[in-house]
Amino acid sequence: MTEYSRASDLQLARELADMADAISMDRFRSVDLVVTVKPDMTPVSDADRAVETALRAAIADSRAGDSVRGEEFGVEQGAAGDSHRQWIIDPIDGTKNYVRGVPIWATLISLAIDGVPVVGVVSAPALGTRWWGATGQGAFVDERLGTAQSGSDTVSRARRIHVSRVAELADASISLSGLTRWENAGKLPQFLALTREVWRTRDYGDMWPYMMVAEGLLEVSGEYDLQVYDMAALVPIVQEAGGTFTSVDGEDGPWHGSALATNGLLHDRVIAALAESL
Question: How many Å apart are CA 103 and CA 43, to the nearest integer?
Fold first, then answer.
């Protein structure tokens, strides 16, 4: 079995993000964008499918033994069969924004080893920004993203990021997304109670607030009703920035249907507040 370094896996993930950005930006705000509705009543565009198809082909060329899990085409095993290395892809996170021309969307690319995300890239070309992180490699952001830049250019332009040091809920800025999702989870009273304890509450949506936590711009981000491809790429970035990423109930990893990312200092208090009987 071929062994790959974490640095080489991260380099590949950034190269995949370059490919994705070129495809998605070419179709963004296109007048002939094709949008259909999936069985779960969520939209999918021709760009979503094109990005995932291209990334799957590139992974098959570069990491033939690895499996791939993507939003649009499910799980595909690598040439070596069931691999402990799995690439997890959301070709366009924020498709509803994408199809309306709103620039808050991104391609999410992660590598999970034995179910643990160890590489994450979040590339938001319409915002001109890309975030990435890998276990033991730190977390970074490039806010001058160009559609044709290479991975090596990205490194030279990047800055390292870290979560905030805010240690009190009263001083925290938070983003808990999807009010109806909290209501459907039976957590609306806890949600509202928590918003009264903090300094500021906003809903920025999709991947962006998690990256704000990693950058130290927010202290808390969370939501319900998520899939693993919505979360896997976020995990290494938040963790390498010094934060904590679990489900709303405190379970590790992106496999439990919900997400809670914090600066770490407030994590236990937020979980306790959301678990309280009201």
Answer: 16
Residue 60 burial by Cβ neighbours in a 10 Å radius (0-12, 13-18, 19+):
middle
Q: Which residue has the tokens 């300094």?
A: 199
Note whether 89 and 233 are within 8 A (CB): no
Instruction: Give kind and range of the element (H or E) at residue 90.
Output: strand 85-93
Dist. CA 197–CA 117, nearest whole Å: 32
Q: Quick check: 93 and 207 in contact, CB under 8 A?
A: yes
3 state SS for 102-134: CCCCEEEEEEEECCEEEEEEEEEHHHCEEEEEE
Residue 93 clears pLDDT 80, i.e. is over it: yes
DSSP letters for 151-185? HHHHHHH-EE--------GGG-EEEE--HHHHHHT
Q: Is the pLDDT of residue 143 over 70?
A: yes
pTM strictly above 0.90: yes
What is the spatial order of strands in the sheet that 244-246 belongs to? 200-201, 173-176, 220-224, 258-262, 244-246
In 3-state terms, what secondary structure has residue 76?
strand
Quick one: tokens of 37?
């509705």
Condensed to tens digits (0 to 9), the pLDDT of residues 29-40 reads 876 678 777 666
- Name the strand (E) or helix (H) holding 224: strand 220-224
- DSSP structure class, residue 150: -
Helix (H) or strand (E) holding 140: strand 138-142
Give first-to-last CA distance, the chain, whole Å: 53
Comparing 209 with 77, the larger pLDDT belongs to 209
Residue 44's pLDDT is 77
